[in-house]
Amino acid sequence: MASSEANSRLGQVVVPALDQIIRNVSRRKHAKLVSDCKSAIDNLNGTVQSRSPTAATAASSPSKGVSDPEEASLAGVVLGLSLLESEVILNPIIDALSLNQIKVSAHALEAVQRLIAGAFLHGEPSHGGDPGAKLLAKLIDSVCKCHDSGDENVELMVIKALLSGVASVPLRIHGDCLLHVVKTCYDIYLISKNVVSQTIAKGTMAQISAFVFRRMEADSVAISLLPVVAAELMEAPSKPNDDNSVTLFSLGFITKILQDIDVVNNPKGNGRLEVGGQDVDKIPDSEGGSVDKDSSDKRQWEISIYKKALEVNKGMVENGEGEATDDLDVQIGNKLRRDAYVVLRALCKLSMQAPAKDNTVDSQTIKGKIVALELLKVLLDNSGTTFRTNERFLDAIRQYLCLSLLKNIASPLTVIFQLSCSIFTSLVSWFRAGLKAEVGVFFPMIVLKVLENVAQPNFQQKLTVIQSLEKLSADSQIWIDIFFNYDCDVNATNIFERVINGLLKTAQGVSPGGSNTLQPSQDVNMKQEAMKCLNTILKSMGDWMDKQLRISVSASPKNAEAVDNNNDPESFSPVSEIGDEPSEPSDTNTEASDISEVSSIEQRRAYKLELQEGISLFNRKPSRGIEFLQKANKVGATPEEIASFLRNASGLNKMMIGDYLGEREDLPLKVMHAYVDSFDFQGMEFDEAIRNFLQGFRLPGEAQKIDRIMEKFAQRYCKCNPNAFTSADTAYVLAYSVIMLNTDAHNPTVKNKMSAEDFIRNNRGIDDGKDLPEEYMRSLFERISKSEIKMKDDELSIQHKQSMNSNRMLGLDAILNIVIRKRSEDSLETGDELMKLMQEQFNEKAYKSESTYYPAVDVVILKFMIEACWAPMLAAFSVPLDRSDDEVIISLCLEGFRIAIHITAAMAMAMHRDAFITSLAKFTSLHSPVDIKQKNIDAIKVMVAIADEDGNYLQEAWEHVLTCVSRFDHLRVLGEGGQPYATLFSISQNEFDKSKQARKKGSAASAMWRSSYDSIGAGGTTFPEITSTQLNNLFTKLNLLEKVGEMNHIFVQSQNLNSEAIIDFVKALCKVSIDELRSTPNPRVFSITKIVEITNYNMNRIRLVWSKIWHVLSDFFVTLGCSENLSIAIYAMDTLRQISMKFLDREELANYNFQNEFMKPFVIVMRKSSAVEIRELIIRCVSQLVLSRVDNVKSGWKSMFMVFTTAAYDDHKNNVLLAFEIIEKIVRDYFPYITETETTTFTDCVNCLVAFTNSRANKDINLNSIGFLRFCAVKLAEGDLGKRNSENDPPIRKDKVDYLYLWFPLLAGLSELSFDPRTEIRKSALQVLFESLRQYGHHFSLSLWEKVFDSVLYRIFDQALHAVDPYGSNKPPTHAEGEESRDRDASIVETCTSALQLVVDLFIDFYDTVNPLLNKLLEIFVAFIKSTHQTFAGVGIDAMVRLTSKSGELLSLDQWFDVVSSLKLAAGETLPDFSFVLTENSKLSENSNGSAAEFEASGADEMDKLRREYLSAAISYAKSRAAIQMLLVQAIMDIYDAHGDGLAVKNTIVLFEAVHSVAFHSHKINGDISLRQKLQELEGVTQMPDPPLLRLENLSYQICLTMLQTLVSDRNPSPRHSAEVETHLIGLCREVLQFYVEAARAKQLQMPGDPPERRPQPLWAVPLSSGRRKEMAARAPVVVATLQAICGLGDVLLEKNLPAFFPLISSLISCDHGSTEVQLALSDMLIESVGPVLLSRAVSS
Fold this sequence. Notes:
1741 residues; mainly alpha; elongated
């Protein structure tokens, strides 16, 4: 028994109601009810406490008798009471509810509601459960039945009680009872005549449905009760008045119930009651405020009762008593899911109710259908993760909801179609991840079918579809996912693309000349809605892009993970198979992220587009289509692969398939065989096989093609069914008969139909002469006659077909047939068959396409979407904007342009972006202001908004924006009557004053006609005459521009652009500025002035960005600076000066280069410009920059000096003087600043001064420049560079590397002046050069000296050598070249002589440092000696002697070896060559410029003249070489005389070899008889003695003998060297004697004209001629010296070599001599040396 306190609270709820029941019933008629009520009252008031519960129950229920005493101990369904006590309390209420009396029912309903609201009723109502559950079920049933009374208050009380019951936590209404509750509310809504009752019933159903699904999502009955979740459903159905009183009352009514229940369920927010095994924290009383002291016991009681109920229900399910769809699991989650499932199923069934056949317009049924659809919409919109992903619910949607949509989309009622569209929209929004195939099926069916119907649309339906598409766009992810999962799926239709095209067609309306069924107002409204929808879709894409770009920094698409979120439908993972329980994260996330890669998207989309192109080509030309698909690797090369493609591919035209299969070519024939062989006809009836075979194509019309196909079919059928016919011929003939029968039976044009007998008779004897069984033939006839063999899609109407039938591609044919089927088709009449067929279509769709749904996460998908839709959208925005003046249309079009440009710009789709922005720029009409309207002003505003919002992404499109800004400013100036910019360039002041009155009209008139977008040129165009009316209209239009406002903020906000965008901005501004300035009639400077402004605005950007910006500006200013228009060039240079001045105000650190970069345009223009004024202006600009900001100039010095260097070579003297004046001031006053931060600027300064030294403008400038170079050298030597640096910085000159590069340009510059043609300049430069080296050379390192020698000093000599010998030393100069060389000799020889002497002195002075450079110095000497110029050779020889004489004591043995080796090399390189004398004719031909024929034809005189000139020059060259050898031999002798004692033996031998080579070569020439004869013939030209080189030969041999005798007699060489020296001496002596003997015995020279046979032969010795005698006399001293040398050999050596000498001595005795010297010397040798040796040998023998 419950406590007294519990009874007290319960009594307060029940007793008043029971009293009212007693008062309002007839005591006689309802005595039992009265008795029961009193018993219950007594029980509650405690008046019968002496009686046991059993007795009390028995008394109140006499018909039942006395119950088992054990039942008294069972827990009841009323809080605190046992089961029997609960029955005592509830049975009177149940009976009262059953009386169907309004007053009694009202009080009973109030009691029930208060019991539920006070949480007194506990348990789960169930008709098949325990007694308590049955009692509660009976109570709920009684409440539900009360709605039949028709009373308004009773209906409200029923609704209140039922809503409280469903919302209650202790009273758990599930299963059938829940459905009963929903059905009761549904009946009240349909039957009640009261608007309030209907509205509340409708809202209650929505709330109950929401409770069920929210509890299912939470997996708990204890949820917080929110207010009405579907307020839009609460509107009164009939709307009797315009106020909302009914709606407000209904909302308040439901909200109050929920608040009361929520307070009881969760008192103070912490009274959460968990059931199903969880603790019940608190069980409030009816007032919701107090807590029972025995709450713990009550909680345990509640849990035990609930567990018991679950156990009972589980047993019932196991015994098969439950529903087939119920789960076996007893967890509360499954029970709650079961409730959601049955509610969903019930609502779907209610929505599919159809009116009776005899009452097609059943308002009650339609009303129920509508409310069911509305409730389904509420459920879908408030769905959670479990509902969206659980496979059981997805199956329910497929089985029931999709079927409901199929039945309702064809409804003629607009409201039903609207609800169907709304439900489909919800499915797409929330369930697309799990219903990919279904969405792909319904989208074309519901949306595209209506949207693409332009000619005969249903206004309401199409408007509904468009509005549904707008709602889909509210979620930015939806369209992206649709495109990714369908437009990129090969087997799916292009939903997104077709939607866009459909909206485009709707927005544009029917084509010109066409008509539609819409009213004009409807047509306008439809176009506006289509435009609005396009904008919404585009905006949705933009929002998604913005979101992706923002999150792309922290999460790449590849690593993005799907996150479960109840409010985020895009967070689903790919769904392929989901169980009853919430799906766990699977590996499909990885697959989804991988599939979203760029490459995968591209492949999917490209594959589909290419495949569709191939299919389209096949449908026009099958063979070409197959060939295209094979090349694209979409179809294999084998016939089997082609056949498989023809059978399985979607979108192929069946007629074309049949034509291709019937071709007789080899490949189509093989394909046809493979196609037929792919069928398996085993076990099929013949007609069934034909039906199956002809489903995939249509038989061609040509008989031969049909014959080939049917022949192969018959062969295949007989192979699969070998016992069917005797042969394949039978099947072949029968197949033809079946086709003819099919045509005869089902063609309406055939009047006389074939009978069965006719069919049988026609086929007699076809089975190898026998008849087929008559029963078989009759059965075949009946099947064909009853069911047509369809060879093409006859059911689809023409309006559903397109060239690429998307319905057919998607597999929608059969489903559409279902929707538009005739009601007489009994085969599809039942819902089960319809659902089965629909499911088959879905399965086929899922088989062909990807079943996995992929959420798009990679932003690159937008590129493919834009590529698919940009052209339709551009047309949709452009055409209406051009044709319409409607404000709404214009606003929508401009908004579309803005969003499209935003997306294409952010995605860097340049072509698409430019297409949109160019079109928008055209609509600004700034190029044609006479046509400006308000919409053009709006377009300008949009253009400005784009610049503000999307400036970071516009890239090259900035040019269009800035062009509009430029034109706007131009028109603004014209409208204000301001001075045109052209006056700055081309109009003088007088002309300006004269045209002041007409300027405004003239400029405006010309501007009115110019149009770059209309391809009207600015120059050379004759514009039409402008009338005054047009001008007045133009000024009115110009006033409209004031509405746009100020555009200067575009330039101000440029400072907010990112680093890349500012560069694009500057590029575009420069292009626009160039276009402005190049406009021939009226150049403008608007943009170039803005360049100065943006430079100021963006001054704070980092240098890296500014370097890139300036790269653009540099080219810009160079282009303008070199303009042919002098005024423009001057303006550009002045602008550059202004910008440079701003940059010089910024401090630059050392070793940076930005100042140099921004001053480079000055340098380039200075070099390229041909205008003197521009060059002068640049000099003055740079001067102002430097002198006014000298403290800030760092790297800018480089460009400044480059400008002045260029000025030094200027042809205009004043520019040179001006530049030098400035450079002079800089060097004198600001020299420390030059090298303050960068020492390399010192080099630039030096180069600049060197340039001025080379200037031809003024000699004083040259000399002063040399003086400044001396000043620079002093500063450099003193270490005075960069003195403004910190004291802690090390002196610059200590850095050897920098020191090298500082000295070198200075010295090199002076070196260049050494051969200046002006003597004063040349001498001054050499003086400064060598003085600097001599004074400061002690600071130089060896590396620097090496650089100085190589690139400074040797450079002087290289220039000199090249000047006198441009072709090298191997080619003798011509006579003319010799004349020119003599003109240059004086200055060059003077310079070289002085320079070589100074170089030798420098070498000697700094010998300790530069001695490793000896070889380089010797190379110079040798080069001079080798020169063709004799004087130069003499200079080189003198320098060699000077070097050895001054540094001989300093040179080491190795260095001496280098010296003597150089002398030997020089001797070998200068040997004279007279061979040209023997080949003079050929040489002459080679040196002539013409051909041999021309040369011979030139005449004898001319030929003789050329010959003499050539010989003269060649002989002069040879004589010069001989003279050089003479000087060289003498120099060698001088060197040997001076340093012979200190030379090593090997060095002396080298000298000997050098002189000996000269002597030997000379003797060779002297001994050449032919050469000497030739020279004698040319004696008048050569003027040479005979022999020509006798003096050189004698001198050389004399020196050789001297060297060797000295080595033998005075140096006492080592044994090794002694033997070598003796060998050389013996060989030399023999050589001299041999040559002398040969010369003495030589024949007389013959006259050149005598032939050999006529030359007399001497019979005896002929005495020497006088010439030969002189020659022998000249040779005599050398022979005498040789004989004396032999005498000095000593007895041993002489005796040893006497056998070799004796023949020569004998020859000397017998030959003639030119003098007696040889004979005397020979006599002395024989007496003094040879005789004693011979005598001693004889004695010894």
